[in-house]
Hints:
Layout lengths: L16 E6 L6 E9 L1 H5 L5 H8 L8 E9 L4 E10 L2 E11 L3 H22 L5 E6 L6 E8 L5 E6 L2 E3 L1 H9 L3 E9 L1
Antiparallel strand pairs: 1-2, 1-6, 2-10, 3-4, 3-10, 4-5, 6-7, 7-8, 8-9
Amino acid sequence: xKNTSCESLNGSFPKNDTIVLYNESEENNIQITYQxxxxxEWGNLGSGLREIIYSNQYxxxxxxxxxxxxxxxxxxxxxSYEATDIKDGKIKEYKFQRYSFNEKNNLLxxxxxxxxxxxxENYKSANLHREMRYKSLYNKRxxxxxxxxxxxxxxxxxxxxxxxxxLREGLVKNIMNHEAxxxxxxxxx
Length: 189
């Protein structure tokens, strides 16, 4: 991972944002929060997912969702991957794995598969249709249409935002250019 601080994660979304996905009746929302950290920002936060959850991020008692975290350890040439499943404000499942820089593709495959499964599970449980709307909670002018497509293995195969295809490889490359990446999915009733 490089220690960069670009303003945009890609052409569609900024480096940090909270996005709400909803159906036409504006019900059954999924809230997605993501943050990319450069070295300076990360140094001010702490070092682990649990610290982020309990020290820096408020988790309400009724929170149900999942949190993913990828962190680079440049001096050890390792990347850590943490995943937490939270139900009603309590941690249901916690996974922690470390990969060497040489195993980066294994890490990305594992993270992508986990995130796809969680998104599909939340997407189905929220009863969202294939085409849904999104809006940014930080930038009120950022809103539009989003389409998710899954294959038979439940992997997210295609993400189209406002009729522009978001390429997985480009998104992953931009994420890996940061010191750390945090992603939260939350079902909003």
